[in-house]
Amino acid sequence: MAVKGSTEYKTIAPPKGLAGTKEQYAIMNKTTKRDQLKKFYILHSWVGVITGILLFVIAFTGAVSVFARPDLKLWANESLHQPSAATPQIIAELIHDAAANTDESFHHEIHAFLPSPSVWTNLVLILEQDHDEDPDAQALWLEYHPQTLELIKRWQGDTEELFDQRSQDMSDFISGFHADLHLGRVGLILTGLLGLTLMASIATGLFIHRKILKELFSFRPHRSFRLLLTDTHKVISVWGILFHSMIGFTGAFLGLATVLLVPAAAFVSFSGDQEKLLETLSPEVYPVLSSNYADMQVQPILEQIYNDQKIEPLRISIYGWGDKNAVGFVDTFNQSRMPRENYKFQMATAQQLETSTRFETVGGVSGQILDVIYPLHFGNFGGIAVKILWAVLGVSTSLIALTGMMIWVERRAFGSEGNLSKQNYQRLSRLTIGSCAGLVVACCGMFWFQRLAHDWVSVGFFCVWGVALLYSLLRNNDFQTCRQLLGASAFLLIALPILDSVTLDKNPLYGSTASHFNIISLALVFIGAGLGFIAKKLPSERPSNNKSTSSADQDKLVEEADVAEKTDSIIEGSL
Amino acid sequence: MTKPPLFSHSFLRVLTAVLGCLLVSVVIVAAMPTYLPFELGNRIAGPSLLFPFLWLALFLYSVIASSLLRVWSLLGVLLVSHIGLIVWALYGS
Questions:
Q1: Residue A503, Cβ neighbours under 10 Å: how many?
Q2: What percent of chain A has pLDDT over 70?
Q3: A5, B7: Cβ pair inside 8 Å?
Q4: Which pTM was predicted?
Q5: Nearest-CA distance from B72 to chain A in Å?
């Protein structure tokens, strides 16, 4: 961090007769202020360059994850192309059958995850023993096909291994990769820290670029390549500042909540018992059982929920099956309301007791903020318009990271900053292009793996990314590499309808033209065409402004760009 | 006259800003429920929501402050006082 800071400067001696006067203090204050701005500038550059590639990866996969559910899940699973055959009556029958055919100890908690593109592909019933009483408690997993309702998986084992049984498709893979890079707790910490550093970059960026209103409209694409990069970086940053700040905060919170913040919060108030803390703040409270038998009214409850067109049921959990005091909670998604809603029912009478949100029990402002953090982060409210806006803004966050990296390299490889050789900076540039454009190819390739070898989505994703990165590192012209990788991505998306017509049992072209699946397929082709257009427009080598201009003129243009850049910034004269 | 480097003790400063601030912020989040005058839910969730801003303020101060000693003093006071509050809450009563 001390690259520039370690330079020795000679300060101007105060003019005679000014010692101790207001003028001297003004000079000192100005120098201190300039030093502070220099520090913010250096901090902004170094935080950006250290986290740049990872920020691109997280932000880009986040933009894709916005569509993970229901759109990508629906695209990935042919069984979801038609409405599920699981009606309230059939679901109720399956739950009753499962309960009748298992030992009573498994009736402590019964969950039914309903088939829907919003969360689960298949209908899954989970019957659990009491894991509070018995540390060796077991769970039973029954998974049914959403169309044929045939039992396709039966598993019994330790409750801790329960959710490993869930089958993954590309939508689960990409949203999981965005959340924790598939590295578990370490990945969560990394993404959480990245949210924090994004906040730090925004704060330092605001300090060093104070003429925000001017920068909103300052875009000079034809002056020089470096100026194009800096203007793009500033314009995207300033226009989307609220979104980027929100993503930084919610990303930091979601990443660190389970690994740092919940344990820290539970440490004093609950003597370190995190489960007790979560139970205290959860709306789903286990009832006090009466030991009196009662019939469970599953079907009437599900019918009530299914009949409400505004809400989409995701899960029903029944606590204390067969007891008069048993309660059921139906977790639902409501497009017109931001947080998920949880409906509580008396299982013996099918009477609805209350409706609450996930964090309503927390109460106050904190509860309201916690309720909106997740939907706000993923644009999971307000329908497709919000999702498109969130995806575009998410891509803009990734472009900020990319342009920031490119500015840093450009100023050193072709400018006066930095102590390393030009080759070293160009290597970093190749690494950046390979990682970022390679990720775009890998995301597009993921669709092909889902159709051709769905068990190999993750392996295929990393292989494509690795090959693209290697290709980029071995090539000298990273502008050309970028074009080629984006061109390959475009091809992979545009050719998807051909892949669909070969691999799907029912050719989607014969289905309803306005079906959700067809709209997604069309949108993917359009995105592919857009990527192809960008690839075609990108330069195949580093732009030299104007080939007819002389070398002296080019130097002058670069110098002019530098001056314009520095004039725009409050840090002028201090670098 | 020679001006001192812009960032004194670069390595220690980076270590303080990255690890020190994270540690102090987490300890503050753990201890804050002992003195926040809210209901239980808000008392627990509030500090967690404040955590990113708390870390950001400490991080920026650690990097920008001219004296690293002053940074350590501030972080030290915050750390010791909040650990004291945790110990008092767990064992004092």
A1: 12
A2: 87
A3: yes
A4: 0.88
A5: 19
